[in-house]
Amino acid sequence: MSTPPPSISARKADHIDLCAEGDVAFRGKTTLLEAVELVHEALPEMALSDVDLSVDFAGKRLRAPLVIAAMTGGVDRADQINRDLASVAEELGIGFAFGSQRPLLEKGIAAGYRVRDVAPTALVLGNIGVVQARKTETARLHDMLLASGADALCVHLNPAMEVVQPEGDEDFRGGLETIARLVSELPLPVIAKETGCGLSRSVGQRLVGVGVRFVDTSGAGGTSWVGVEARRAKGGQANLGERFWDWGIPTAASVAQLSGLPLGICATGGLHNGLDVARALALGATCGGIARTFLQAQARGGREEVLRLAVEVIHEIRIACLLTGSRTPEDLQRAPILLAPGLQRWVPRGTPLAARLS
Fold first, then answer.
1. Which residue in 71, 123, 217, 253 is deepest, having the highest Cβ count within 10 Å?
2. How far apart are alpha carbons 221 and 50 in whole angstroms?
3. Angle between helices 138-148 and 175-185 in degrees, nearest 10
């Protein structure tokens, strides 16, 4: 007799454990953010307090270009984690994203998705897989967003993760059509996001073509979600996960690939600190998202450790702006940069980023 697949909540609990404590990082591939050299400005002619870090993303104004990125939900343990993370986002005026809300959509499991009482004004991003969205009426997805108080819906694209997942999907037809429907019918912004494998320019162009205005790169180099599923899998599925563990477009390369497209970009995937965020901004991102580092901080010291880390990250972004003579993140997007060859080969010709490097 075959073993029944684990419940959605059990899978989400596995994800928390593996992301907080497991060895699930990319092995031979980095984010390539280390290939971005910001040019030092020895005469910035401004005070640190002159730097204004505020940006607009997904219909809201953030006080700093930072999002506590998607990680968890759908299990009791996620309740305190997400409430801690969201309350810090509220205090600092940054964004917060749920992990997949499939448990809420399909099973009515609300654990981990109740944060509005501690984050009444923060940018809160909902999250559902494109395969689940394809099968679900727009009205039901809207109800899910209303139930969790989300300001926008992230639609995650995760074919690599799914084909390795023991209970994963294998049919990814109709994804672009589904996103087009949601852009047309949902009264909230739609954000197309990957889950650790990055977005290419051709995908970005197709998303723009159906009306998407915001993306989340979730590039390679940080947590390998293929690796997460490989740790959960057995037999042939585990071997498959080992083979494709390092699959994907590095985060910095994904931001570079999207250069010049009319998209607000949240750069996620392996960002750990404010300098990582600043490098992503210099490549053209609107904001940066950090996930696993905040999850680990919450596991170490609860809300206070998350707050301490978030304040530190924002301070580092501010210092990077000062040291490049940038009064705003928009200025940093135009500041001089140098790229190592491994990243420069990802920059499309004729884009604003390519022009800055010439």
1. 217
2. 33
3. 60
DSSP readout, 3-30?
PPPPPHHHHHHHHHHHHHHS--B-SS--
Instruction: Work out the percent of the chain whose per-residue pLDDT is above 90.
Output: 81
Asked if 231 contacts 24 with a C-beta cutoff of 8 angstroms, the reply is yes
Average pLDDT over residues 242-250: 92
Q: 211 in the Ramachandran plot: left (φ > 0), alpha (ψ -120 to 50) or beta? A: left
Calpha distance 246→16 (Å, rounded): 20
Q: 57 vs 130, 280, 344, CA distance in Å? A: 21, 15, 27
Specify whether the CB–CB gap between 110 and 147 falls below 8 A: yes
Cβ atoms 60, 311 nearer than 8 A: no
- Mention every residue, 6+ apart, whose C-beta is less than 8 A from residue 26: 220, 221, 222, 223, 224, 227, 245, 246, 248, 270
Q: Which residues pair with 37 in a beta bridge?
A: 338
Is the confidence at residue 214, as pLDDT, over 90?
yes
pLDDT in tens, 93-116: 999 999 999 999 999 999 999 999
Q: What would the two tokens of residue 254 be?
A: 């994904």
96/88 Cα distance (integer angstroms): 9
Tokens of 229: 């599923």
Q: CA-to-CA distance for 119 and 149, rounded, in angstroms?
A: 10
CA atoms of 353 and 339, how far apart (whole Å): 10
Q: Which of 116-120, 211-215, 224-228, 306-310 has the lowest mean pLDDT?
A: 224-228
Say if CB 110 and CB 116 are below 8 A apart: no
In angstroms, rounded to a whole number, what is the distance separating the alpha carbons of residues 218 and 64? 19
Whether the pLDDT of residue 2 is over 50: the answer is no
Mean pLDDT computed over every residue of the chain: 93
d(Cα 269, Cα 251) in Å, to the nearest integer? 6
Tokens 């990680």 found at:
71
CB-based contact 126:105 (threshold 8 Å): no
- The pLDDT tens digits of the residues spanning 115-129 come to 999 999 999 999 999
Q: How confident is residue 17, by pLDDT bands cut at 50, 70 and 90? A: low
